[in-house]
TrEMBL record:
Pathway: Glycan metabolism; osmoregulated periplasmic glucan (OPG) biosynthesis
Keywords: Periplasm, Signal
Task of the protein: Involved in the biosynthesis of osmoregulated periplasmic glucans (OPGs).
InterPro entries, alphabetized: Gal_mutarotase_sf_dom, GH-type_carb-bd, Glucan_biosyn_MdoG/MdoD, Glucan_biosyn_MdoG_C, Ig-like_fold, Ig_E-set, MdoG_OpgG
Name of the coding gene: mdoG
Full protein name: Glucans biosynthesis protein G
Domain Glucan biosynthesis periplasmic MdoG C-terminal: 33-516
Chain coiled-coil ranges: none
SUPFAM superfamilies: E set domains, Galactose mutarotase-like
Length: 521
């Protein structure tokens, strides 16, 4: 808007003109907070020495038991944006236990950025032991997002950002299970893992009709910084569009992009060593990979006695994830934790990520409270410190695993483990010292085939085992085919690698079942 020199305005008119200029600036998006603003901070941080955050948490809150910490809840009537006409609301986590460093959280509006201030009066501490006098200088440990996901009349928690760079998202009818992370550094490296931390967030105030929420985050750690933008789309399958810009301060041994973290205690392919009414107990039961060459791979997860690392070389990976394929409640029988409702997490890269590998890390655990499974993509070549790494991807949180796959490629529905045996002349089954795996393949392409179709197994095994039997038969219940594989392990102190797929006329019908039998099994 131009003002002519010879124009004359009253004071009221000048005020109106000034206001009009401001409105024009805002509506024309001349001011906007975006990923570049965070990236500038991340890049500047990377050029400086790392400053470890100081904990401001008093011992009384640091020593809280988990049950006591859970009692500290943000008051629902204090939910941020509760007075606005928007479907999204925010609540905050209080510092406590190992969440001992405050996280700065900001709100982004059309014209400003301002910090959301911590106030202990906004929290209900329940019966958690605390001294009100020690609270005034503390802060937020993280935040959660509320949205009417399952009913218009009820606000559900759909996302949580708490601890290091961890966050969780769920869709309709789901319960929290696996977590995503911003970045993983030196996972399963003898020198120890480094856990980058989201130190500051910027959350865009949503409009009344918005169906998505935008969150920016600044990541910091001794050897890396990063800028992130998350756009959360809640729904039956909630998705998160992620833009990331990473800057290394120093060389790292292993960099994990789009890491997923989950839990596996026991399941059909590795039954519980003690009697348990729950036949399966896990957040995820396998790693799925869609390679750039079109190959699909399914790797059932284990809870090994020793740390296990599996590497799958991929070029321009099309997708990978930790999935919960088994959705039958009868396999879990857990009315409290509902493992059958926990989402699968699928990473869909945007653009060409180039050469790299998918890494699966399996950590021994004795109980279900520990996340012991990690999966991520790692580039073959890392840039020099200070150079920008840009990776964009979409995260899917779903219970419809079949929708992730090509209809022309069948997938593994179940991996069942049993003692190997042979049927005697008197029809009694006699164990023969082998281990048996029954792998059920299902899919639209298989269901269209006649039950007498000529299906052949394609099986390979590493040097630590011998195949005793490999056979395929039609499964009338699943309308698919079941592979029976029996093997003898040569050295139980070593892992045993196996791969299998089904073919017809030498053409592949299924994804590749890739399994690693842990040592000492």
């Amino acid at each position: 808007m131009l003002i002519k020199k010879d124009s004359t305005y009253t004071g009221r008119q000048l005020k109106w003109v000034g206001a009009a200029i401001l409105v024009a600036l805002y509506t024309s998006n001349s001011w906007a907070f975006n990923l570049d603003d965070v990236a500038q901070q991340a890049k500047s941080l990377a050029q400086k020495g790392y400053q470890a955050p100081n904990s401001n948490l008093p011992s009384q809150l640091r020593e809280l038991k988990y049950a006591d910490y859970q009692q500290i809840q943000y008051k629902r009537d204090k939910a941020y944006w509760s007075q606005l006409h928007t479907p999204f609301k925010l609540e905050f986590y209080h510092e406590g236990m190992y969440f001992d460093q405050p996280v700065k959280i900001n709100e982004v509006t059309a014209s400003t950025v301002h910090e959301i201030k911590y106030d202990p009066a906004d929290f209900d501490f329940g019966n958690a032991p605390h001294d009100p006098a020690i609270l005034k200088n503390l802060g937020f440990a993280g935040f959660k997002v509320l949205y009417p996901l399952n009913s218009r009349k009820k606000e559900d928690e759909i996302s949580s950002f708490l601890g290091a760079s961890y966050f969780r998202v769920i869709g309709a009818g789901q319960t929290y299970g696996l977590s995503a992370r911003g970045l993983a550094i030196d996972t399963a490296v003898p020198a120890g893992e480094e856990f980058p931390r989201f130190k500051e967030f910027w959350i865009e105030r949503p409009n009344a009709n918005d169906k998505q929420l935008t969150i920016f985050a600044l990541l910091d750690s001794p050897r890396a910084t990063g800028a992130y933008r998350f756009i959360i789309h809640p729904g039956k399958e909630s998705t998160v569009d992620v833009q990331s810009r990473v800057y290394l301060r120093d060389n790292v041994t292993k960099l994990g992009i789009a890491p997923l973290t989950s839990m596996y205690l026991f399941g059909a392919n590795q039954p519980s060593p003690i009697v348990n009414y729950r036949n399966e107990l896990h957040d995820s039961d396998g790693l799925s990979i869609h390679n750039g060459n079109g190959e699909w791979i399914w790797r059932p997860i284990n809870n090994p006695r020793r740390l296990g690392v599996s590497i799958y070389q991929v070029d321009n990976v099309k997708g990978f994830g930790l999935l919960q394929r088994n959705r039958d409640f009868s396999h879990y029988q857990d009315l409290d934790d509902r493992y059958d409702l926990r989402p699968s997490g699928w990473v869909e890269p945007m653009g060409d990520w180039g050469k790299g590998h998918i890494e699966l890390v399996e950590i021994p655990t004795n109980d279900e409270t520990n996340d012991n499974i990690v999966a991520f993509w790692s580039p073959d070549t890392l840039p020099a410190p200070g150079k920008e790494l840009a990776f964009d991807y979409r995260l899917h949180f779903t219970r419809d695993e079949s929708a992730l796959h090509d209809n022309n490629v069948a997938w593994v529905q179940d991996t069942l483990r049993s003692t190997g045996d042979v049927k005697q002349s008197n029809l009694v089954r006699q164990p023969d010292g082998s281990i048996a795996f029954l792998v059920d393949f299902v899919g639209k392409n298989l269901s269209k085939l006649p039950s007498d179709a000529k299906i052949a197994p394609q099986v390979s095994i590493g040097n630590n085992g011998d195949i005793v039997e490999q056979s395929v038969r039609y499964n009338p219940v699943t309308k698919g085919w079941r592979l029976t594989l029996r093997l003898r392990v040569k050295d139980p102190k070593q892992v045993t690698e196996m791969r299998a797929a089904l073919t017809t006329n030498d053409k592949p019908l299924t994804e590749t079942w890739s399994y690693q039998l842990p040592a000492n099994e």
